[in-house]
Amino acid sequence: MRKQLTKAATRLLRLVLPSVLLIGAPIAAQVPATLVPAKPVAAAQSVPIVPAATGVPTLTKTDVDAWLDGLFPYGLDTGNIAGAVVVVVKDGQVVTERGYGYADRKAGKPVDPDTTLFRPGSISKLFTWTAVMQQVQAGKLDLDRDINTYLDFKIPPAYGKPVTLRNLMTHTGGFEETAKYLIAIDPRDNRPLDVALKRSIPARIYAPGSMPAYSNYGASLAGYIVQRVSGEAFEAYVQHHIFAPLGMTRSSFVQPLPANLAPLLSKGYVIASDDPKPYEIIPLSPAGALSATGADMAKFMIAHLSASNPLLDAKTARLMYAAANTPIPGMPAMALGFYHEDRNGLNIIGHGGDTDWFHSDLHLYLDKGVGLYMSFNSAGKDGAAHVLRQRVFDSFTDRYFPAKPVAQPTLATAAEHGRAMVGNYVSSRGSTTNWLRIANLIGQPTVALNPDNTITVSSLTDPAGVPKRWREVAPWQWQEVGGSDRLGAKVQDGRVVALAPQGFAPIFLFVPASTGMNAAWIIPVLLVALAVMLAVALSWPIVALTRRRYGYRSTVSGRPLRLRRATALTAWIMLAIAVGWMAMLSALSSDVAYFDGRLDIWMRLVQLLSLAAIVGTALAVWNAWTLARAPQKHWATLLWAVVVAVAMLFLVWLIFDMRTLTPSLNF
């Protein structure tokens, strides 16, 4: 059961987390293979980058194409990925646009970077944030004003501070994570943006500006604010003020796509060998509804890299790209909408994006005038697309902009600081007021100190699933042994209050798990409690059948017998509750259709069972109390009754602590 729960929760969390944060190590050695159908677009060759040192490849179309062609066909084939598009730009020109694999595998339709639309997921937010900055530039929006002044509904006050656009753009609005209505399949679930925002306002779990917690809702609020102050529907605003000026003729936020673009959309897959999946509706459209070709994304990157940015003036652009929040000292910062991915001494900003079927990344090398965009139409076997996209970013950066190695010895404080890091952690981006709080309990990262004073984080692994080792190279900063990834901690009064690897740091952190949310003891105790429930539940029919077979008569009757039967029934109910929540978590992780509210009736049913279990637990406690006060005690029976009552009390505590009895059906 634990393995099933962990697998389900991990996939659910992967869906709602931006996958650029997935830390992937280099995949197996790339073996050149015959190119799968593709149609590279001829483009004017850019001015080569002057190599930093002898032997560094120059960033030209010829070199980039050869490098990509040696990487992508093999990666798609071994990863069971249907298709991908890759675009590289520099100095206002397209270096290359490459399509690999299939947009429609069954029809044999290849990916064409000029005409095939992909769904870049949360990269859509960059268009939303660009629109916000246009309105800031026009004087219609103030980054530090209470957003309620721009809305026709109210975000309830919390922690004595208003939410501002700056908070939304740095993901520090303090909103709880929400999953319901995140993605839909039925077009009837594509509600107007204002309706989608008003029907499910997330709880505020942090003071504004205090904690990064990536928020789709916050980004969509920003898009709605643009709609309000501009007087144009969000989709129309982006069309008129971003797509049209850039000549992005094959891009749209409209859902479903307009008739002229719908036939050009790539199919979406989990793995290439399976059937294609249905079109995904993103009700919170500013957060992830974009459909665009690789060629159009090249135009967007060029605009943001250009000194004469056609979308923003120089002052506004500099403000947008500059560090606006640094949650972990020494780790990459959050800009206004973009997050920093700085490495090799370069100023890099970007964003990742995922729907359930499409997986994408965009990176802008501001110092070099270079942009890299890639999108996959399948997750692939064991999440191969996530590993491949990280590999492409790392390898592209190291190939064309290598850093001179700097020797950094392990600090003498490695053991002391490593011990301070040990423990279980939970993500700052999560649910705390509804039943998805369960997901925070499953698969918690665990930090351990190794004999050589390196540390490991259980969730940060290489492609083989082995946790990476990290050594301290600066105070409270660790570097991957044999790699370049960094891990940092935030310390207050000598105590670790947060940690994050470099890819996570701008938009969410891992904070030490509280006692009441620490899986190190809760999961083992939960498994023992469920084992006790299973023993009680099975003992009832087994004892009854044994007595019937051998003609034994029970020596217990009256109230004691009724209490025992009530306890046995409660055990069955407890097991049903556990199976119910596990099944719903599994359903959410396996089919996006369940995000539309169809689980509501099952949630209510399990809640009713929970109320019955609370009553049954009271009876089990009464049963143990009765046995303890009996003049003639059967110690084995009493001990077992106490064990059962304690196990049930723990499960009732968990029912309340996991917020499974909340009146609201939102999650």
Task: Chart the SSEs and their pairings.
Elements (H helix, E strand, L loop, with lengths): L1 H15 L44 H19 L3 E8 L2 E12 L4 E2 L6 E2 L5 H14 L27 H5 L23 H6 L17 H15 L3 H13 L4 E2 L38 E3 H12 L8 H8 L17 E2 L7 E7 L4 E7 L4 E7 L7 H17 L13 H8 L1 E5 L9 H5 L4 E4 L5 E7 L5 E8 L2 E4 L5 E7 L2 E7 L8 E3 L6 H32 L7 H33 L9 H30 L5 H23 L10
Antiparallel strand pairs: 1-2, 1-10, 2-3, 4-6, 5-6, 7-8, 8-9, 9-10, 11-12, 11-18, 12-13, 13-14, 14-15, 15-16, 16-17
Helix pairs in contact: 1-14, 2-10, 3-6, 3-7, 13-14, 13-16, 14-15, 15-16
pLDDT average, as an integer? 89
Radius of gyration: 27 Å
Query: What best-fitting shape do the alpha-carbon axes yield?
Result: globular
Considering DSSP H and I runs of 4 or more, what fraction of the residues is helical? 25-40%
Strand percent estimate: 5-15%
Largest sheet: 8 strands, antiparallel
Low-confidence stretches: 1-52
Number of strands: 18
